[in-house]
Structure formats: structure tokens, C-alpha cells
Amino acid sequence: MTNNQASFPFSDIELARRLEHTEARANAEFVEARAKVLPESGAEWIEVAGAYAMFDGVASPCTQTFGLGVFEPVTAAVLDEIEAFFKRHCAPVFHEISPLADASLLTLLHERGYHPIELTSVMYQPIGRDFQLPTPRNAQIQVRLIREDEHKLWAQTAVKGWSELNEFADSMLDLLQVSAARATGLSFLAELNGQAIATGGLFIHDGVALMAGASTIPEGRKQGAQLALFESRLRYAVAQGCDLAMIGALPGSASQRNAERQGFRIAYTRIKWGLAQERRD
């Protein structure tokens, strides 16, 4: 057992509030960046009963809520207000729900015609000055924060890493360039022999370091680029005073396994709920 494993906080409502609020703030800042870059997009977010409801476009993965039921009990009036927000934007209604949310929320969702559509493992790990990953990194890979003029390079590298999703390439490039332009978002680039081969993002809020945006180009894989990005981002977060790191992954995925290999644990599995089309109308 490593030093940081011994100090894992319990997976309780207080932990859930820290994790959910961090992810909510990260997505809200993305929406704000979209609104600044593309005012005509109509991107905006609101806070209702502690939850963040965000609109970033009808097909955007950011168009949903975070933290519903974690900060305050949810009433029918709360859901009415949130659903009206999405309806005003002609957008589908989605909620990412922690199992630590107020139990009454499940009854409300069922009564209003919601159905589960997606699962996410929310993972966490305490970090401190003595933090050390269990696997040594490749010393040949250099990791750095991107410069102001490298938003497009970072986005192009990330998209190339997700080349298996060619049909989404254009929308992903747009999404990632907005992500790189966020006010407090941090975009890291991994280089091998001076060539960009992998990307990673970091968002810091309330002492929590949210890690996202992991992508490695096909020819750069299996050389330890993501491990180097893991370590560099976490060390940066520690230097900024963070005591906790988090990451979201598809249950049972390679991303989850890689995070577990580096000492992350599952805090809880979140369910994404969607409102049936006939109920939205």
C-alpha cells in the first residue's frame, strides 16, 4: 500500500459534492468559452437547486446537467425549471446522476418518463507532495502546457488520436478547440523527438484536479505518452494546492483499467438519464 492509498477519503456525500461540483464548473466554463467564441450558438448555463444545467448545442455532450440531487433535494418544480431551460433551446434533456443523490430523485425521474442511457465510473485518488505513480514513465517523452497559439495543434493531435471516430472528426475538432480556449482549462501536450503525439486536459477547482482530454495518435501509442501526461498533470495539480484527482471512464474500459493501475479507485458509478421524446414535447 502506497502513502496516498492509505489516505483515501470515504466515498460519501461530501466527496460526491466536491467531485460533481468540479465537473459542473469545468463544463460551465466550456459553455462560457463557446458563448464567447460563437455568440450565435446560444450557449449558456443556469444553476437550479445546486445543479448546473448547460446548453452547448443540441448534439453536444455538454448539453445536460451535473450535480442534480447532490446539493439539494429535487422537487417537481426544480425539474420543471430545468426541463423548460432545455425546451427553450429545443434540446434533449439529460441528467448525470450520482448514486449519492437524494433517493427521492429516482422516483421523480421514473414518474416523468426518464430512462437510463449511459454509465460512467467516477474515479478518484488523493494526491500530495509525496505523490508517485506506481509505474515509471518514459524519460524520452516530454510534457508541457501548450502556448496561446497552439490551441489548434492540440485539438488536431487529439482528433488524430481518436481517428477511429472519423465521422465525428469535424465536430470533435470544433469541440476541442473551444476546450483549449477555456479561461482556466489547462491543455498539456506530450512530445517525442519534438513531435506532438498525445494530449491531456486538466481543470482545477476547490482542490480537485479533473483529468480529461486523453488522446494519443496511432503511431505514438504504447510508448508511455499517457503515463507521462498522467504524472505531469498530477504534479502540476499538487503544485497548485490540489489534494484530490478525479477522472471519468466507461465502466470496464481500457481507460478505467489504466486509471486503476495508477492508483485510482471508483468513487461511484454515475447514470445518465434521458427524458423520453414524447415527454419533452
Describe this structure as you would to a colleague:
With 281 residues, the chain is of the alpha+beta class. It folds into two domains: 8-121 and 269-280, no CATH class; 128-242, Aminopeptidase (3-Layer(aba) Sandwich), CATH 3.40.630.30. The protein has helices at 13-37, 76-88, 104-111, 151-161, 169-180, 225-239, 254-261, 277-280; strands spanning 44-48, 51-55, 64-66, 94-97, 114-126, 141-145, 186-192, 195-205, 208-216, 244-249, 265-275. An eleven-stranded mixed beta sheet has the order 1-2-3-4-11-5-10-9-8-7-6, with helices on both faces. α2 (76-88) links the parallel β3 and β4. α4 crosses α5. The model is unreliable at 1-5 (pLDDT under 50).
Structural class: alpha+beta
Main sheet attributes: strand count, strand direction, barrel closure: 11 strands, mixed
Helix % is: 25-40%
Number of strands: 11
How much of the sequence lies in strands comes to 25-35%
Order of strands, widest sheet: 1-2-3-4-11-5-10-9-8-7-6
Uncertain stretches: 1-5
Tell me, briefly, the overall form: globular
Short overview:
The protein has helices spanning 13-37, 76-88, 104-111, 151-161, 169-180, 225-239, 254-261, 277-280; strands at 44-48, 51-55, 64-66, 94-97, 114-126, 141-145, 186-192, 195-205, 208-216, 244-249, 265-275. The protein is α+β, with helices and mostly antiparallel strands.
Write out key terms for the chains shown.
281 residues, eleven-stranded mixed sheet, disordered N terminus, globular, single chain, 34% helix, alpha+beta, Aminopeptidase
